[in-house]
Design goal:
DUF1980; OB fold (Dihydrolipoamide Acetyltransferase, E2P); TIGR03943 family protein; elongated
Length: 315
């Protein structure tokens, strides 16, 4: 009698206890959240996220990674909760995204970015301050403000339309070293030799120097400038003696990449290979495009240069 009662007690207790079984759906969700959150964290810590978005997205990416990891931890509490119908299709959304980010991506070329080319003054709306410059202003001066990129202008080259001054001399000596330069107290940029009226643009200051020259055009007129970029030329929009030593600028993500630089006048543009990297040295002069004054470069020397990795981030 005693044993029968004891057996009934334990049997009844086992029947009333909730069953514990491994839940494959929760485990799959846990893996997806953990991998996706960890991968985003890795991209931010390594700096590789800059190949996809601008630095201003960094805090949002950290927030996304934290949310994913929190979801993963919450899922652990349900890992052994029984579920009679397994649903896992929604997990493939993150799986596809992870695989997409892991795949190698070839760099974009200018051929992918010029389909929606627009004239320079198309985005001129107002006047910027000394430290501002439009990010998607093709042929536009940094002294003009620019609206947010739209579908029609997202990939528009950012250049400057010149006048008819022509340069006809080249030299094979690469100007790789900067001369004794002083800092410009107004712009806070290196590479300025005011005494000799020369500007040597460091690769890390490509955008700030273009903004500075545009907003202080009269100050830097007749200065000699040395700047490195890839050869961007398009017969549909540029004359035979025009090209731009450009860098790709990103205002939000890779979808709005656009060539940015100052337009140059040069007699032997046909001898320059498109997308090749060069260091251009020339004299800054004032030209006009659609009735607007803007700085342009009369080329005096062109030398081959090594490719500069990374994009330009105006904001």
């Amino acid at each position: 009698m005693f044993y029968r009662g004891l057996s009934t007690f334990w049997l009844g207790r086992d029947i009333n206890m909730p069953a514990r079984a491994f839940n494959p759906q929760i485990f799959l969700e846990f893996v997806c959240y953990s991998v996706f959150g960890g991968f985003i964290f890795y991209l931010v810590r390594s700096g590789e996220y800059l190949s996809y978005v601008t630095p201003r997205m960094k805090p949002y990416l950290y927030f996304t990674a934290i949310v994913m990891l929190v979801w993963a931890c919450v899922g652990l509490s349900r890992l052994f909760r029984p579920q009679y119908k397994i649903r896992s299709a929604h997990c493939f959304v993150l799986t596809i995204l992870i695989l997409f980010l892991l795949l190698p991506h070839s760099p974009l070329s200018t051929a992918d970015l010029t389909a929606n080319y627009t004239g320079g003054s198309a985005f001129s709306q107002g006047t910027l301050t000394n430290k501002q410059m439009p990010s998607n202003n093709p042929k536009g001066s940094p002294s003009s403000s620019t609206p947010a990129p739209t579908e029609s202008n997202a990939n528009t080259p950012v250049t400057a339309q010149p006048n008819d001054n022509i340069s006809d001399s080249t030299d094979s000596t690469p100007p790789n070293t900067q001369s004794a330069a002083t800092d410009d107290p107004e712009a806070g940029l290196s590479g300025l030799d005011a005494e000799n009226k020369k500007i040597t643009v460091d690769n890390d200051e490509f955008y700030p120097w273009i903004a500075e020259v545009y907003t202080n055009m009269a100050k830097y007129e007749s200065y000699t400038i040395s700047i490195t970029g890839f050869v961007f030329k398009d017969p549909e929009y540029f004359a035979e003696n025009e090209f731009v030593p450009a860098r790709l600028a990103m205002t939000c993500c890779t979808a709005d990449l656009a060539p940015l630089g100052m337009l140059c006048k040069y007699d032997k543009v046909s001898e320059l290979k498109a997308d090749s990297w060069v260091t251009v040295e020339g004299v800054i002069h004032k030209g006009q495009y659609e009735g607007e004054d803007e700085p342009q470069i009369t080329v005096t020397k062109i030398t081959p240069a090594q490719e500069v990795e990374g994009y330009i981030y105006p904001y």
